[in-house]
Design goal:
six-stranded mixed β-sheet, 15 strands, globular, 9 helices, alpha/beta
Amino acid sequence: MSGFRSQRTGLRALRPEAFGADPSGERMARIRRSPHFKDGVFQNPGGTARTRPSGSAVEFAKTFFDKDTRPLRAPSGTIPVHPTTLADIVAPPATGLRLTWMGHSSVLAEIDGQRVLFDPVWGQRCSPFPFAGPKRLHPAPLPLAALGPVDVIVISHDHYDHLDLPTIKELAGTDTVFAVPLGVGAHLERWGVPADRVRELDWHEDTRVGGLTLTATPARHFCGRGLRNTQHTLWASWSVAGERHRVYHSGDTGYFDGFQDIGATYGPFDATMIQIGAYSTFWPDIHMTPAEGVRAHLDLQGGAPAGVLMPIHWGTFNLATHPWAEPGEWTKDAAEEAGQAVALPRPGEPFEPGGKLPVEAWWRAVSGPITRHWSRSRSVEDASGTSRGDLDLAGER
């Protein structure tokens, strides 16, 4: 037995630092008490969603390596990153709310005098290894240190494209508070974030940071960083409410009817940051198509166009088989057809949802041809109608 224990200790020592740490002790006891933890794993709303690709591996390989579509999964030129500087974001927003999309799901939200940084990923690859895995398609708009002080860092879940080891290690040296879903604090503490700066929340729990109330809200996704996915860390979307403004960040999620409940309880929102990229017919339960993203925004707003939708989770990493620019194009079409205001900033371009919105389809200059497989001939009705799914929510399905 002693030899077996030594072997296990040796294997733990070989575990890459980027894998983080598994919850244990009182943290694991709290996880087991969660109403969303059942049969040894966290559960999705309505039950466990499919987290592995559906269909055959051969079918997926044919799609992934298709010589005609594969070149479309990367830009044909240099992505026009906005040259953000501290001067762009040092003056308070005139309306009290400003968003700066840093690429993928990373967003700096300045809300009623406080600064929130969602899912910061400044690393070159979303991978446990610096030499392999999806690489950035554009540089970060500005160095992490140039952001200036941040009041709270919000993490949606522990996948590599949302929880980035080099970024967290750099932020660990600040005095910023981290708001994270249950279990994620184990990773942060291993990487040097003091326990007293970590606020771990279950769905519908909240915490106060200055004048902000941050609430972890449900999402339909999954978790895991190592070779063995234990489903012991929670995933979440987030509501952040200030004195005058409210924003919502979806994290990663499939579409589910819980958006209506989130909106009724914590909305309406001045702006939503909604995942609309890395969708696929191979994993329909855990990521949304752009049309589903627009529908989720409408649900969050009570069923009718309101506030501003900003698409996230696209443009920075190649994580699916759809064309690189398709999420932007499809979101623009779906939002216009729904009559919903949408902001389409370049990475690093600050804007105020209460002011002039960036709406130019900037990706067209560096994109190959995009085939519109979605329909623009049908509309999204409000919550009182019976055909909320009139937009082609399924896309290629």
